[in-house]
Specification:
613 residues, Rossmann fold, ABC transporter transmembrane region fold
């Protein structure tokens, strides 16, 4: 089994099938931080709606005053002018209070989105390597993007649409009950309940269609990202048309789901408009009958009509809000599933920082397997005294690179311990552990930034002089100087603009710049030519002086100077000793050495070891 590819599936929380109020419970602590602003914004909301409801009441008095004194031109001028001032003031107050509400609440919304996005980002880096090897970057990034966007939508719709509409409905229905026949309130309330029930019923049906559309959208995005990340492989095999066809399959499924979703939306809009139109017609008819019968004035007719228009205008938008709110809850729950992922590797409570003095590294009876029942390491025990170098060699799948991953606590062993200066690394903070380690991995992935930035990533506070010194030590300074932009040269996504050897030397420079007490070289020279390999080996020996160093290698020429060499096979140590001692023993290591000396570059000795072991 390849040592770099864990097989055990990670338990993941199921995707939400029905959004619930759990998302609101998750959001509450983030809003509570701005509780004073929230309270003030709610007061502005109520004030705006009181002013808004007052507008039709003033309009009624204007109409009635004009109707009662038709022959008095002074009354027609003086009384309405005073009411018009009140009318204009109320209109201005609605706008004033609404804008004050938005000013007060804007920091709440954006602050909550910022804190949650940052928390999700930090949590992703706290999850184990197993989770990140199994996640699908495109689909997950789309879920997080939709989730953070939906937080803003949820808060905005709640404060700007749902609560204002509920407040206004309560005020209007209360006025209808107090001033008029209960019939008006009954029609208004009945239409409201019918409208909400119809909206919820149809939206529940539409949710499955919308969810299917989102699933296809995420799948199409994931397929596109996966193909672009493997750009070179696609081009090498000439599979552009094949990848386009796979992408189009997902787009076709998305298109079918999107069409169904849009058709169902049209049905919902039609039903909502019929309910609203019927209710407004009934109320205006009833008011007209009252005016004809003399029980209501012309101003009352205007008031009822204005109330209904004012009431059902936001109610018509409430259907859209409900649908968006429903979807926002679903999207937020999907995003919070990331936060619910438990950390496979976590610091113990009140874990102390690692204290490195001699930097002695010890593996004690370490057992580990990526999949239950299939161990990669079987009772591994060895020690690297402080300031010395130990090398591990062996065939692929022997568990060599697993050592570095356990040392970095990307995984924890199922049994046994790993100690640095007598401290179990599982009992100290991961940040202090990794601060003490400098690692040059076999497969180097660089940030899409400059060469200087990627080298400085080992110690972001380093000066330009220190960066260049590390580059010289890694034998890459001359190459950088030949570039037109020097250290500002962009490396491309994942370092695609650099060769494998150049990326490897950037990684070595990055580790040397960090200047840690423990160094791990995991096939650090695997992609270098012989001349550069010999040059860097000298620098590695210099960097390893007075440091505890673990070298993982296939090429035996890179480990001949190590004080101790372990030959790892089938998860166990088969041989140990210095280069000379292992050659004299005439065992596995000696056979590997002979194969390398024969110069069979087309068949790496580590792979042929299986034939001679």
């Amino acid at each position: 089994m390849p040592e770099h590819a864990p097989r055990a599936p990670q338990e993941q929380a199921p995707l939400p099938t029905r959004p619930s109020l759990a998302a609101l419970r998750h959001l509450a602590p983030y809003l509570w931080q701005y509780r004073l602003r929230v309270v003030l914004a709610l007061l502005m909301l109520v004030a705006a709606k009181v002013a808004n409801v007052g507008v039709p009441l003033v309009l009624k008095h204007i109409v009635d005053d004009l109707q009662l004194q038709p022959g008095d031109p002074r009354a027609a001028l003086v009384v309405p002018v005073a009411l018009l001032v009140a009318y204009g003031a109320l209109r201005a107050s609605v706008s004033l209070f609404t804008e004050l509400r938005e000013v007060l609440f804007s920091r709440v919304t954006q602050g909550a989105v910022r804190r949650i996005a940052l928390q999700v980002f930090q949590h992703l880096f706290s999850l184990s390597l197993r989770y990140h090897l199994q996640r699908q970057t495109g689909g997950m990034s789309r879920d997080i993007e939709r989730g953070t966007r939906s937080i803003s939508s949820l808060i905005s719709y709640t404060l700007y649409s749902i609560l204002p509409t509920l407040v206004e409905m309560s005020l209007v229905i209360g006025i209808l009950i107090v001033r008029y026949d209960w019939w008006f309130a009954a029609v208004a309330l009945g239409a409201l309940l019918l409208y909400v029930s119809f909206t919820i019923w149809v939206t529940e049906w539409r949710t499955s269609l919308r969810r299917a559309m989102n699933e296809q959208d995420s799948g199409a995005n994931q397929r596109a990202v996966d193909a672009l990340l493997n750009y070179e492989t696609v081009k090498i095999f000439g599979n552009e048309s094949y990848e386009a066809a796979r992408y189009d399959d997902k787009l076709r499924s998305w298109m079918h789901a999107a069409v169904l979703s849009q058709n169902s939306l049209s049905l919902l809009n039609l039903g909502q408009n019929l309910i609203i139109a019927s209710a407004v017609t009934l109320l205006v008819w009833r008011a007209t009958v009252g005016v004809v019968a003399g029980t209501m004035t012309l101003g009352d007719l205007v008031l009822v009509n204005a109330f209904m228009i004012q009431l059902y205008a936001p109610l018509g938008f409430l259907g859209v809000v409900y649908r968006e709110l429903r979807q926002a809850l679903t999207d937020i729950e999907r995003m919070f599933l990331v936060l619910q992922q438990e950390r496979e590797v976590a610091d113990v409570v009140a874990a102390p920082a690692l204290r490195v003095v001699a930097a002695t590294l010890r593996f004690e009876d370490v057992h580990f397997g990526y999949q239950p029942g299939r161990e990669v390491l079987r009772g591994l025990s060895f020690e690297i005294p402080g300031g010395t170098t130990l090398a591990v060699v062996g065939p692929s799948g022997a568990g060599k690179s697993t050592l570095s991953r356990l040392l970095l606590r990307f995984y924890d062993p199922q049994r046994g311990r790993i100690l640095i200066d007598g401290q179990d690394i599982a009992s100290v903070t991961q940040s202090s552990l990794r601060a003490a380690l400098g690692v040059v991995p076999q497969d180097t992935v660089l940030f899409n930034d400059s060469i200087g930035y990627n080298i400085a990533y080992g110690r972001p506070s380093a000066s330009q002089q220190e960066i260049e010194q590390a580059a010289r030590a890694a034998q890459i300074h001359e190459f950088i100087q030949r570039q037109p932009l020097g250290y500002a040269t962009q490396v491309g996504e994942r370092g695609l603009k650099l060769s494998g050897g150049e990326k490897q030397r950037v990684a070595i420079a990055r580790a040397l710049l960090k200047d840690p007490p423990l160094l791990v070289f995991d096939e650090a020279t695997s992609q270098l030519d012989s001349a550069n390999e010999r040059a860097i080996q000298a620098q590695i020996r210099l960097a390893a002086r007075n440091r505890t160093t673990l070298i993982i290698a296939h090429r035996l020429s890179t480990v001949v100077d190590a004080q101790q060499i372990l030959v790892l096979a089938d998860g166990r140590i088969q041989e140990r000793g210095s280069h000379a001692e292992l050659l004299a023993a005439g065992g596995l290591y000696a056979r590997m050495w002979d194969l390398q000396r024969q110069g069979d570059a087309s068949d790496p000795p580590a792979s042929r070891l299986l034939e001679v072991a």
